[in-house]
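Archive entry: two folds, one per protein. Generate the first.
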Amino acid sequence: MFTVRTSKPGSGNKCYITTSKGGWSRCIQGKPTDKQCNVLANCVGYASGRFAEIYNEIKKTTGMKYAALNCNAENWIERAKSLGLKVGQTPKPGAIMCWQKGATLHSDDGAGHVCIVEKVYSDNLVYTSESGYGSSAFWNATRNNNNGRWSAGSGYTFRGFIYNPAVEDVPPSPAPRKYKVGDTLIFTGRLYANSYGGGAGQTRSNLKCTITKVNEDTKATKPYNINNGLGWVAEADLKPITPTPTPTPTQFKVGDWVRIVGKGNGAADGSANTAYGIGWKKQILKIYTGYKYPYRVGSTSSTIGFYQASALKKL
């Protein structure tokens, strides 16, 4: 297999630098152009580079064997087939995901989007790495196929996966746990001495708790340690804290373009980490009435965070 990428490529990585600047990429420069890797921010430049990076890591090679993957994102399926690459509808690690934007395969109604599958949890759940023209140089996302578009907006049509020939078929990765370290929840149930259900102890009811450790082993039936060692608990015994209702937001509506001018949160109820993105131009994706951070903000390919009205400026 290959090393999963969870951070932006750094200086000197030729997979993400144009040939005119001494790199291997034949893609255009990104916008805004990354100072270290000039094909970022751009989904095409990133996906082309990451596809090559994975191929080189496994095959112990250099260069870009498939540098011709440099056209509009939505046309990659045809370009990939012309290069002898296999395509399909089942996700595999190292594969390129390809979307069409608009009603046709012409750039006048959008150029589409591509990204890379880093992990496969199931046929309907994957972990990706991505970049976006006019957006961010790099981000990771967990995408599901509940809407048939792999989490993309209604203006996108999912076309398929382009498989990396260097990656052999591997079993799916364990699905990520529902909760993570730092999440604050309500616990009602029994405490255990270890994450496998040993040493049953006392019970608690409606206890406000914080996740301090998580055991990712799929055999762990009590995978969450709460309140700095109070005990290990089952996922079914945890539930989110019901947020205090707030007035229905009226300042913005879904689809509005805004500039982020303040901090937000990774969850609408404020239970996750701080979300930043200050200065970025994004859209209102959804409004969660009654929540502390009601405005879900991002792009059609990813969510940046959840914000209050005071942290957003309408464009």
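Generate the second and append.
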Amino acid sequence: MARYDVFNGDADGICALLQLRLAMPAESTLITGVKRDIDLLKQVAAGPGDEITVLDVSMDTNRAALDAALAAGARVTYFDHHFPGEIPQHAKLTAHINTDASCCTSLLVNDLLEGRFLPWAVTAAFGDNLNEAARKAAEPLGLDNRTLEALAHFGVCINYNGYGAALEDLHFHPAALYQALLPYADPRDALADGSGPYGTLATGYAEDMALAEAAELLVDTPAAAALLLPDAPWARRVSGVYGNALANDHPDRAHAVVTASADGTWRISIRAPKRQQSGADALCRRWPTGGGRAGAGGVNALPKGDLEPFLADFARHWLAD
């Protein structure tokens, strides 16, 4: 029997797996990638009796590989908060799916574990820009505001590490970052350890966010704003967290961060208005390589000539709501 842990390379995927393996230690093959690399389950060559845990990647995107794994006799446990499509009914599948805009995968795992590693779930929710949900989840911990802000920044930094067109863009391979954080039962211990990965991530985040302040404005209306970043590693790293920061600063407005790619396509991160938290997935699924969840989505490779019609669609989308 083989064991596989398949997880998104962002804060939610990493912190979800941290909680599970802190509670249930096990040796496994780790399968992950950059945040936008969600077609991960096909990398598993499943066999009878294998145990596969999938965290924070769309079941809809991975449906063919999921069906193949189940047909091969593997047992699959699936945690996610993205659009799942039709969830198969199978004796060897256990699905924990919740697409509510205030939910993330780490909070689903936290519920299963009855709060055993709640600080990691809180960190993940902050990283996924679910700030209200994170603060609500943290209430049993009785943390002061300074500690909450520290966990929030840590979550943002872990999430920031996942963005990039390729693993070479990242400060840490997501599997290596997960392994570096696994010794810490509590994220506060990781923050206190000066030799841990937090310092590298925090420095990189601050430098890249400062560069993003010069972004060109492509759309500017009361309901929607789009900004352009260049084809550069720092821009690819910061695209998602910059969108989160804009959404927090302007909660009544939708945001698109458009990043140029070397192949001539556009990489786009979408954030729904914070006060609404809906519609991002519907917009992105109208375009090839697009997807996401209600509050946040993206398009991986928009053809060069489609940018103007996409921006027009983006600008109209929330007005229609």
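Annotation attached to the second fold: Residues 145-162 form the longest helix (18 residues). The chain is about 40% helix and 20% strand.
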